[in-house]
Amino acid sequence: HLTLAFGAGEITLSAGSDKKLVTGTATYNVPDFKPEVKVDGEDVRIEQGDYQVNGFATFEGMKNEWDLKLGTLPMDLEINTGAYKGDFDFGGLSLTSLSINDGASEVDVDFSSQNKEKMSLLSYKTGASNVSLKNLANANFVSLVFESGAGNYTLDFGGTFQRDGSVTVRSGMSNLTLVIPEGVAATVRVSSGLSNVQVPSGWSQHGETYTQEGSGPALTIVVEMGAGNVQISR
Asked: What is the mean pLDDT of the segment spanning 48-57?
């Protein structure tokens, strides 16, 4: 179990560690940002040092960057952050579960190649953010839960499905794009009285339910949105 606890700054994650779990660098110009590594059996936690703001101090001019490479050891990965910019490529890893919790953020997540393990749960919780999740079929997830405040969000289900997937999206006033390739058997149910839903040609509609015929593993998505726009595209 690997936990990354990061505050404000930039963090990059990708495969490529020649070790079993994680290697990388942290670059910072505030001594208190120095990360701490804690190991308790098979639980590893890397956390940013505690920075205390005194008086009218701000984060202007401060640098805090992590660039980490993850190994292919099967792992549960948990990422807890504040307001930050993230660039994550989990392609080729062996994630059995993935949990991301952040505040206001700019994040790009990609599964550029197949996850080597069945992922029981992919959970993403964010505040008012701009988040893009790409090639989610390659995540090999059983269940995906995405919860957000206001913002712009893209869930791209490109890649190759290995099993049926269940997705729940709960969002405030936001713009949500669901990219579902042609040929994927998909059902999307949108529960909202104030949302505009757009679907491409070839989809059928029955009330709040939108369906695309396809073959192979089935994708089921439930969207619960306060208000905003839902666009389904290929």
From this structure: 58
